[in-house]
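Translate sequence into structure tokens.
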Amino acid sequence: MGEISDWRPFVYGGVASITAEFGTFPIDTTKTRLQVQGQKIDQSFAELKYRGMTDAFVKISKQEGMKALYSGIWPAVLRQATYGTIKFGTYYTLKKIATEKGWLLDKSGNENVWCNAACATVAGAVSSAIANPTDVLKVRMQVHGKGTNNAGLARCFKEIYVHEGVRGLWRGVGPTAQRAAVIAAVELPVYDFCKLHLMETFGDQVANHFISSFIASLGSAIASTPIDVIRTRLMNQRRVQLQVQNLGPGGGSGVGGGGGPGVAGTAAAIASPSRRIYTGSVDCAIQTVRNEGFRALYKGFIPTWVRMGPWNIIFFITYEQLKRLY
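Result follows.
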């Protein structure tokens, strides 16, 4: 039985994830802005403000300042400290256990693709579900530039908790877990596969890690972007519940007496929860395709791939170098 207490894959995964996040976060901000724009049933984001990744980068920088490109960086770092640590640590631990059980390698010493993908899927889904609150905070702060109501991390967290409850922090957890599972199931096995088959040409060197990371990124971007669009839109929508007491007899405040509808009618309207635009992942997908076309599910694909490439390159190179240190 492998030593599950081995802390190195967890620590290396967390440190490498945080390093990669800092290096690529502005690209992620442009991706998020592109994914939420053009929602015809949500007037707040109906306008197509950005024509693409470069245009979004330039406009955000000019209109909101360079700092806006890093809005949400701290919940992102917190997310990687949990998500990255758990995902990569769990993945390599499960692979070690599967190897010792005889499930991972065949008689020729090659890895079983399905077993590898299963380890990655479990690791990705579990870790992303645990880290979902930090993802919600990141998306909200990225969309609004400097956080919800131009606030920082603490106030953004408080606003979500007060107005939407604990469930608000787990908004979009379904597609988040699905996306993480898809990315992990494609990315990690593809990286390991490419790295193994490039050993004879490049050896266990940076060039091997670079090429393997780039190939793994393209596959995961193609597979995960539609789920990412749905996840981002669900996380960004709010469902605020305001409780207003009945102010007068007969259901009215009776401004000037009378107990007529006046303020009470307004109070009743305010008291009811605001309608959510999307009721869930499937509804979001259907509404998006119906109102914006199938291509809308691939909004932000270019920045997704452009970010995934450098992110994975930074991550895997950092991870491999850390492995050599200890």
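Note: Residues 240-274 have pLDDT under 50 and may be disordered.
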